[in-house]
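// run 5 | inverse folding | seed 20
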């Protein structure tokens, strides 16, 4: 075989006149089927080229090139012609080659292969063998190749017509499907929407009965029948319809009886049984309702005798199902009460975990189970947490010794004090006058007493002796008040309360607490424990205290006392628990410091530690509402 081009001499043979695709000569190409079209097209091509001896057409398919037609049909195509066609399918220009004749006659065969593409995609290739008995000089291969290329107009016209018809059918199906969805969208309740949809489908598709079933927990439940207001949930016909729906759903594809070319490989036993129930029914079909997360249900169609389903009707039904599925699924979800939605959520979660999809979710669920199992076995220290504050173990108060006015106060809260340090001084001017008056009265009484003694006036002597005692008592009282006008610290410690520096000259009442002094070496911790946690706290338990000023410094303590007096604070009923520091307090602590205390109550299960509060609340709430 040679692939060289040969010049053509004068007077070389020319191809016969070629009929354009737009003409209608005798023996026009049949367009009803692809087989008839390719056979007619090849026949016209070879008939228009007089020296043609054989020809073949290969068309593109999913598995590569498949034979579409050959000419003449009585003889098989030469092997060389098939090879030329395969080469032309991969070339952008016609392939021309010469080969010796295989029938034993003298001369050469001219082999021409032309590939055809539509929108850049390969669709078919034609290869023709021409006789050249008088030598290569008398044949013009370029003219033959050009005529074969011009004949490709038939193929282009047919494919364009098919694409246009497909687009038209899709638009028509989409329009009908949108009309049906519009009818269903008018109804707010899913049951009424389903009834409206099946009634409209029965009219549009000329069906005797249309049924709609929704998927619920793995099974299809019949929801609507066309032209029927209500139906029994159980019955022979209903069971047969649901069986047909289950058959369609199990295959996740459309099913028809009698079978169509597009459904021939699918099982239709239940559809055959459904058709056998009604003597007038002869054809049944079902399509899947697509949902947001998988199938949402099934549509089943039934027709009378003499009206079988075709592919166009089945495609229209599939388009309607693709749009109706999400609409009905959303309406059904919105129409359910809270309990139904909870059940659906749990069912979807279980399906996602136990299903064949979402392996990452399964791994996460297994990991969560392992963690939960470890938490159920592991134990930890349960610690009661509460707010806490430091107080001095002993607090001494300095009170007003008598009614009077504040004259001086050199100290303020936070000052370190020693026993005897001046805290405040009362105004003593009136006291000095009282002492002077009492001293004068005492001296006057002594003088009168001396005179009465000199006169031996015994009655007056006794009376004056009593007046002297009274005057001396008044003098002693005045001097005692003067001594107590200086208020001093009774102990060494820290002034924690009392600031009279802004109250100089103001009156104070006798017995009023003016200052509070706490020692610096003895503290107690006051823990405000919630009543729900008080049952776990006993005297002698240990814990840790973290003060707000020193959060990283955890100080140990021991519970020393639990007071039985409750106090309402921050919306909680709290009890006062007192504790003592295990170690010496040091110099960095001050009375009044606050923080968080954790009391160690014993070892418990980790799950109990984290959930007992919620469980106790649920128990109390249930008890509250129980009759």
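// decoded
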């Amino acid at each position: 075989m040679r692939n060289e081009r040969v010049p053509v001499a004068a007077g070389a043979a020319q191809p016969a006149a070629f009929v354009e695709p737009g003409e209608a000569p005798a023996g026009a190409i049949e367009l009803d089927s692809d087989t008839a079209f390719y056979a007619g097209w090849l026949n016209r091509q070879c008939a228009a080229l007089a020296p043609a001896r054989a020809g073949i057409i290969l068309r593109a398919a999913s598995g590569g090139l498949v034979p579409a037609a050959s000419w003449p049909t009585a003889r098989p195509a030469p092997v060389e012609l098939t090879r030329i066609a395969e080469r032309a399918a991969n070339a952008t220009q016609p392939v021309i080659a010469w080969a010796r004749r295989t029938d034993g006659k003298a001369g050469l065969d001219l082999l021409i292969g032309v590939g055809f593409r539509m929108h850049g995609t390969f669709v078919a290739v034609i290869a023709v063998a021409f006789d050249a008995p008088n030598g290569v000089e008398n044949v013009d291969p370029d003219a033959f190749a050009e005529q074969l290329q011009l004949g490709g107009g038939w193929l282009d016209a047919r494919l364009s017509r098919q694409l246009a018809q497909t687009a038209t059918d899709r638009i028509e199906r989409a329009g009908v499907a949108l009309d049906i969805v519009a009818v269903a969208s008018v109804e707010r309740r899913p049951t009424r929407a389903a009834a409206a949809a099946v009634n409209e489908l029965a009219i549009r598709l000329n069906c005797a009965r249309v049924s709609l079933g929704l998927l619920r927990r793995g099974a299809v439940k019949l929801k609507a029948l066309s032209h029927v207001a209500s139906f029994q949930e159980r019955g022979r016909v209903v069971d047969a319809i649901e069986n047909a729906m289950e058959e369609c759903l199990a295959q996740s594809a459309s099913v028809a009886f009698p079978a169509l070319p597009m459904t021939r490989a699918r099982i239709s036993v239940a559809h055959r049984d459904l058709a056998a129930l009604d003597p007038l029914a002869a054809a049944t079909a079902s399509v899947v309702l697509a949902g947001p997360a998988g199938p949402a249900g099934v549509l089943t169609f039934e027709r009378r005798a003499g009206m079988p389903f075709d592919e166009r009707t089945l495609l229209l039904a599939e388009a309607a199902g693709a749009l109706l599925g999400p609409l009905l699924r959303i309406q059904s979800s919105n129409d359910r009460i809270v309990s139904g939605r909870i059940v659906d959520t749990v069912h979807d979660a279980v399906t996602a975990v136990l299903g064949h999809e979402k392996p990452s979710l399964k791994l996460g669920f297994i990991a969560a189970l392992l963690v939960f199992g470890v938490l159920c076995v592991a134990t930890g220290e349960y610690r009661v947490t509460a707010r806490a504050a430091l107080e001095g173990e002993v607090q001494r108060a300095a009170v007003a010794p008598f009614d009077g006015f504040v004259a001086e106060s050199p100290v303020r809260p936070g000052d370190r004090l020693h026993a005897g340090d001046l805290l405040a001084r009362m105004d003593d001017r009136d006291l000095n006058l009282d002492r002077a008056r009492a001293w004068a009265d005492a001296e006057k009484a002594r003088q009168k007493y001396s005179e009465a003694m000199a006169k031996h006036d015994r009655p007056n002597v006794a009376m004056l002796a009593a007046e002297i005692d009274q005057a001396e008592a008044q003098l002693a009282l005045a001097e005692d008040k003067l001594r107590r006008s200086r208020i001093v610290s009774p102990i060494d410690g820290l002034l924690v309360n009392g600031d009279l520096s802004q109250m100089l000259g103001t009156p104070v009442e006798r017995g009023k607490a003016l200052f509070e002094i706490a020692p610096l070496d003895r503290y107690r911790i006051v823990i405000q424990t919630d009543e729900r946690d008080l049952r776990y706290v006993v005297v002698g338990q240990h814990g840790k205290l973290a003060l707000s000023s020193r959060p990283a410094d955890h100080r140990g303590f021991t519970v020393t006392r639990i007071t039985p007096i409750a106090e309402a604070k921050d919306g909680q009923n709290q009890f006062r628990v007192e504790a003592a520091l295990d170690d010496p307090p040091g110099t960095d602590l001050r009375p009044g410091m606050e923080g968080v205390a954790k009391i160690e109550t014993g070892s418990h299960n980790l799950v109990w530690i984290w959930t007992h509060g919620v469980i106790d609340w649920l128990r109390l709430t249930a008890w509250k509402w129980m009759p």
